[in-house]
Write a structure and sequence with these properties.
- The chain is 30% helix and 32% strand.
- The protein is flat.
- The strands form 3 sheets. A 6-stranded mixed beta sheet has the order 2-3-1-4-11-5, with helices on both faces.
- By secondary structure, the protein is of the alpha/beta class.
- The longest helix has 18 residues, at 202-219.
- It folds into 3 domains: 6-97 and 188-218, 3-Layer(aba) Sandwich (D-Maltodextrin-Binding Protein, domain 2), CATH 3.40.190; 100-186, D-Maltodextrin-Binding Protein, domain 2 (3-Layer(aba) Sandwich); 221-288, Alpha-Beta Plaits (2-Layer Sandwich).
- It has helices at residues 15-26, 57-63, 73-82, 84-87, 128-137, 171-175, 195-200, 202-219, 233-239, 270-278, and strands spanning 6-11, 39-41, 47-52, 68-72, 90-94, 100-107, 122-125, 143-146, 162-167, 178-187, 189-193, 222-229, 247-251, 254-264, 282-288.
- Its EC number is 2.4.2.17.
- Belongs to the ATP phosphoribosyltransferase family. Long subfamily.
Length: 294
C-alpha cells in the first residue's frame, strides 16, 4: 500500500466492475483520469484502485498488495478453501449486487436427484475446492472434474453425472435439461480487507464502509409523503412498510387532516399504495432517496 493511502482491488471488467465503480461513484469517490490500465487514483479520498481479474483479488488482498477489495463471495470462498492465508481475510461489508447462487444440478430424468445420489458419481465444476468441501462435510465420495467454463454441457457430453455451477435465473440449466437440487453457496459482492488494513487502514476504510452502507440503505429505502384523516392515522401507520416513526404534521386550514412523511426501509409495492389509499390516504408520493446516513 502507498503510504497514507488505501489500495482497493476491483475487477477490471465485468459485472463486479460495473457494480463496484457505480458504488464508488455514488459514494462520492472521484477518480482521476488515467492511461494506466492497472491503477486509478481517487482525487478526493486517499484511495488508489488496482484493476485486476476477479479471481486474483483475494490473493492480492491476502498478500498485502492491496488493503481491501470488492469481490464475489463465490470467488472468495473458493480461494479461501484452497488457501489458509485467504481464509484469514475478513468480509467487512456485504454490497448487495452481483447476486448469484452456487448450486448442484443434474439431468431432469437422470439417476442423480439428491446429494446422496452423488456417491461414486462425477461432478463437473469451476469450483473444485468448494465442491470438495461441501461433499466432505456430508460424507460423500465423488470424482470432481474441474472445468474452466461451459460446465452445464458436461452431463450431455458424458463428462460428468452432475454439475456444481453458478445460477442466476436458471435459464441456462433449463436450456440444457438440468434441474438444481441443492444450494452450496448464496453469493453477492462483498468488501474484504486484510488485517493490516483493518488495523491501520483507519479513516479511509471506515469512510468507505460508512458511505457504502449509506448507498446500500438508500437503494433499499423510499420516502413516502401523503395526506390522511387524523382519525385513521394508526390504520395508515400499520400498513407503511418498514416505517418506524413517521413524521406527522398539521395541514394548514384542515383540523381533520394531517401530513405524513415516512422513510420506508422495505420495498413499496403498488398493493401497498392501494392499502394506504383504502385507509384514507390521499396525494400519495413515493420518492427515491439519493443519500442516507444513520
Amino acid at each position: 500500500m502507498n503510504a497514507g493511502r488505501l489500495t482497493l482491488a476491483v475487477q477490471k471488467s465485468g459485472r463486479l466492475a460495473e457494480g463496484g465503480f457505480d458504488l464508488l461513484k455514488q459514494s462520492g469517490v472521484k477518480l482521476a483520469y488515467a492511461r494506466d490500465a492497472l491503477m486509478r487514483r481517487a482525487e478526493n479520498v486517499p484511495l488508489d484502485l488496482m484493476l485486476i481479474r476477479d479471481d486474483d483479488i483475494p490473493s492480492f488482498v491476502a498478500s498485502g498488495s492491496c488493503g481491501c477489495g470488492i469481490v464475489g463471495e463465490n470467488v472468495l470462498a473458493e480461494a479461501a478453501a484452497r488457501s489458509p492465508r485467504v481464509a484469514g481475510l475478513e468480509i467487512v461489508q456485504r454490497l448487495g449486487f452481483a447476486k448469484c447462487t452456487l448450486k448442484l444440478a443434474a439431468p431432469l430424468e437422470g439417476p442423480v436427484q439428491s446429494v446422496a445420489d452423488l456417491e461414486g458419481r462425477a461432478i463437473a465444476t469451476s469450483y473444485p475446492a468448494l465442491t470438495a468441501k461441501f461433499l466432505a462435510e456430508r460424507g460423500i465420495t465423488a470424482e470432481i472434474v474441474e472445468m474452466g467454463g461451459s460446465v452445464e454441457v458436461a452431463p450431455r457430453m458424458k463428462i460428468a453425472d452432475a454439475i456444481c455451477d453458478l445460477v442466476s435465473t436458471g435459464a441456462t440449466l433449463e436450456a440444457n435439461g438440468l434441474a438444481a437440487f441443492e444450494t452450496v453457496l448464496e453469493s453477492e459482492a462483498v468488501l474484504i480487507a486484510n488485517r493490516e488494513a483493518l488495523n491501520g487502514g483507519g479513516a479511509t476504510l471506515e469512510l468507505l464502509v460508512e458511505r457504502f452502507k449509506g448507498v446500500i440503505a438508500s437503494r433499499q429505502t423510499k420516502y413516502i409523503l401523503l395526506n390522511a384523516p387524523k382519525d385513521r392515522l394508526d390504520e395508515i401507520r400499520a400498513v407503511l412498510p418498514g416505517a418506524d416513526a413517521p413524521t406527522v404534521a398539521p395541514v394548514v386550514g384542515r383540523d381533520d387532516v394531517v401530513a405524513i412523511h415516512a422513510v420506508c426501509t422495505e420495498e413499496v409495492f403498488w398493493s401497498t399504495l392501494e392499502q394506504i389509499k383504502a385507509a384514507g390516504g390521499r396525494s400519495i408520493l413515493v420518492l427515491p432517496i439519493e443519500k442516507m446516513m444513520a
